Amino acid sequence: MRDGFRAGLVLIGPACLWLVLFFLIPLLLVMRLSFFGFSPVGGMIPALQLGNYWKIFTDEYFVNIFVRTFRMSLLVTFFTLLLGYPEAYYLTRIRGRAKAVVLVAVLSPLIVSAITRTFGWFILLSPTGLVNGALMALRVTDTPVKLIYSETGIIIGLTHVLVPFMVLSIYASLQRRNAALVPAAHTLGAGPVRAFLAITLPLSLPGIVAGSVVVFTLSMSAFVTPAILGGTRVRVVAYLIYEEFLLSLNWPFGAALALLLVAITMLVVAGYNRWLERGRWSEVFR
Amino acid sequence: MRGLSRPALALFNVLFLCFLIAPVVVVVLVAFTPEGWLQIPTTRFSVRWFRAILDHPEFISAFRNSALIAVAASALSTTLGTLAALGIVRHRFPGRDLVQSFLLSPLMVPTVVSGVALLYFFSRVGLASTLTGVVVAHVIVTGPYVIRTVSASLAGFDRSLEHAAMTLGANRLQTFWRVTLPLILPGVSAGALFAFIVSFDELTVTLFVTGPKLVTLPIRIYNHITYITDPLVAAISASLVFLTIGVVLVLERLVGLDRLLGTQ
Among A168, B92, B93, B206, which residue's CB has the most CB atoms within a 10 Å radius? Predict the structure, then answer.
């Protein structure tokens, strides 16, 4: 036992050391940095104060970008759920080669380079692109709809890349349920809709929750997709952080934005979990 | 299932998969356009934009940088990650769950935040805009993928083979090299490939830790399309897609995608 303990430490030691040195310490340093001051001429002022956070909360410009990022993340979570649930359900109904092919296709947005797929959306959503062409051919609209450099485009791009997480998460929870329950409900006289609402849906709730937490978290901090499809025209918090660090060079303020982004995301996720664990469906989470 | 009707679900599946592959298909098609702008070719196809890549040495040197960084980062993270996975899966020690979450934590922290933290840290220790710095950062980003993949491959490991080797007189190191490693090699190689792909494609963290002197391919493409969008980027992206398909086929041969995705 003691021997196993020592061997375990030797094995995890290098990775832990690497992570402490190049991840934990940098994160702690950035936490401290977020309380520093800044002057455009002198640079960083290493004295702890709350000015950066005050500036974010009191300036409407920054508040609006946080609100927009939050709103878009909620919408992306909703759309990935809307598309991901039936797909996950479909995956439980197929077997063998067909399932392997569908799984690879579902995972393809994650396998393909982030820039490639975002550039693909850029082409598809541009004023002369296929999507606008189809909309105009179907007489939905007479003039091209603004899809790139708009929230709509970013939401489409993010839904596309994040929906695999939702599908896999719901699929896993649907797999775990007892296969005899739905036929049993039918035997007891429940119709298909009732059986779905009373059995399948509640039992897949842990998967929905896990999936929406991942999707929401990743949308809140997404950078590549909003940077290419929105850029300076539709700023999100991650883009703002990038601008502060690499263009304005106000590192303390950028650090405060970054920490606030993490804090808000964590608070939302914690609140969501708490609300669910206390709610009506609490027993499916045990 | 009597519930949701089967044809409707199958139709949804087809539409959904079209949505998923649409952007990639479009990029690949546009890459073959004979025109000078982003147009899907219908009658005439051309490889002029693939040839044009050769006239842009800045993309080729960026490709070389990315490949070099990805090789170094995946080698390091595969070594560290495999050892860590062995330690976590095989040994019981106090705080094991905590250590596991800590080792996977780079996946939980937004990449922008990791980028910011590494930029600040590197600028203080003199690693900003250096090859070493980028590799160090990529090891942080790719490590969790290796740990997950190798841990999964260790789950069904038959330890009696190791005991047999030890009984026959092999010491710990010999047992590891001759028995353990060959058996988990598919998982380790899959982890290494994952690490390579993630590193090669990494943009966000890299954008922060590198500078104009050391440009990776994703950064070069990103900078290019923020100024101009032409079929050149489509041709480069298409080449990357073909490369990725090649890698996926290698993965399939090496471990089988079924096993990798845990669908068996």
Answer: B206
Q: Is pLDDT at B54 greater than 70 in this prediction?
A: yes
Give one word for A249, left, alpha or beta, with left for phi > 0 and alpha for psi -120 to 50: left
Does some domain include residue A269? yes
Domain count, chain A: 1
Give the whole-angstrom CA distance, residue B115 versus residue B219: 14
CA distance A73 to A162: 11
Whether residue A37 lies inside any domain: the answer is no
C-alpha distances in angstroms, A100 versus A96, A174, B229?
6, 17, 35
The rounded distance, in Å, linking the Cα atoms of B68 and B72 is 6
CATH of the domain at A78: 1.10.3720.10
Chain A residues in contact with B26 by the CB 8 A cut-off are 120, 123-124, 130
Residue in B9, B12, B14, B20 to test binding to A, most A beta-carbons within 10 Å: B20
Question: Which of A197-206, B27-36, B67-76, B176-185 shows the highest mean pLDDT?
Answer: B67-76
- Residue B86 sits at the vertex; the CA angle it makes with B84 and B90, to the nearest 5 degrees, is 125
User: Is residue A85 a part of any domain in this protein?
Assistant: yes
Residue located via tokens 């759309």: A79
